[in-house]
Amino acid sequence: MKLIITPLGSYLTGDEIADALLDYGHALARNQTTDLVDIPVVVEKTTRRLRLTVGWMVQLQSLETEARETELVSLATTKSLRARTAKLVDGEPSLAWPVQAEADAGTDDDGFFEYGL
């Protein structure tokens, strides 16, 4: 089991889920995008779903634990995260939202971005 650590809290999940989540977050960051994901976590010996933002400018770490709970496994979650990562790495379009749409942003004379709203 691994502990996912964010600025807002820490969440216990399975090793494969945590690794897939961090890989996806890294791929998103390299593309300067973010995404909202849903993963299973253990809370007070029960399984719950956690929705969190991953990617560009999002602090996310994992810590291996010696949790006594049974390993949390979600093949669907892991497969989905791995597929999303592969799309980003292979250069295919992602469902993730860009942090800054290049077509809508330009720089003015003082170096600040102007956003076309």
Structure description:
By secondary structure, the chain is an alpha+beta fold. It has one domain (2-115). The protein contains two helices and eight strands, in the order ββαβββαβββ. The protein has helices at residues 15-30, 75-89, and strands spanning 2-6, 9-13, 33-43, 46-55, 61-64, 97-98, 105-107, 113-115. The strands form three sheets. It has a three-stranded antiparallel β-sheet, with helices on one face. Strands 4-3-6 form a three-stranded antiparallel β-sheet. A two-stranded antiparallel ribbon has the order 7-8. Strand 1 (2-6) and strand 2 (9-13) form a beta hairpin. Helix 1 runs parallel beside helix 2 (75-89). The protein is globular and about 40 Å long. 22% of the residues are buried. The model is unreliable at 96-117 (pLDDT under 50).
**Overall pLDDT confidence:** 83
User: Which sequence of SSEs, written as H and E, runs from N to C?
Assistant: EEHEEEHEEE
Helix content: 25-40%
Number of helices: 2
Question: Mind telling me the C-alpha Rg?
Answer: 17 Å
Could you give a short description of this structure?
The chain is 26% helix and 37% strand.
Question: How are the SSEs placed, and which strands pair?
Answer:
Layout: E1 2-6, E2 9-13, H1 15-30, E3 33-43, E4 46-55, E5 61-64, H2 75-89, E6 97-98, E7 105-107, E8 113-115
Antiparallel strand pairs: 1-2, 1-5, 3-4, 3-6, 7-8
Record keyword descriptors for this entry.
117 residues; three-stranded antiparallel beta sheet; globular
